[in-house]
């Protein structure tokens, strides 16, 4: 029912967004996102993995706010995503026959971090060096200096290079700049700019 007719009001057509969303997106008419009163249990789940000695190790945990209900290591090379998927049915098994307030998944940093300030100190007008991907021995690892034209919270745009550059590939150029000039095959001259 997107629009309903209400003859008693000044506006004969009315629309209830919540009712429409409930009808369109509810998977079942009696399912609602509301906590139960007086639950027996409230569970949280988590799965994680790490690499140790070249082998991926993983585990999962089912916990309440005060205790660890169940936690186990999983076979080698199990991903963090698979560990989280294993944790959820284990929590359901633990909660079988009990009234639950909510079975909640807790995943550290599951939502993107919103930035309200830049994570780097660079400003337009600064001069920086940019790290190259050149891995040959005895070759320069840094190009520059380049002047910064624009910045975002995590990247910079410099003069003379088309793509944006992530702030982790940049270092500030020293304020004292030197200019090298050659005055013959075996003589160079250094001047402070």
Automatic annotation (TrEMBL):
InterPro entries: MLVIN_C, RNaseH-like_sf, RNaseH_domain, RNaseH_sf. Residues 120-173 form the Murine leukemia virus integrase C-terminal domain. Keywords: Endonuclease, Hydrolase, Nuclease, Nucleotidyltransferase, Transferase. Pfam families: MLVIN_C, RNase_H. This is Protein NYNRIN-like. GO terms for molecular function: endonuclease activity; hydrolase activity; nucleotidyltransferase activity. Residues 40-98 form the RNase H type-1 domain. SUPFAM superfamilies: Ribonuclease H-like.
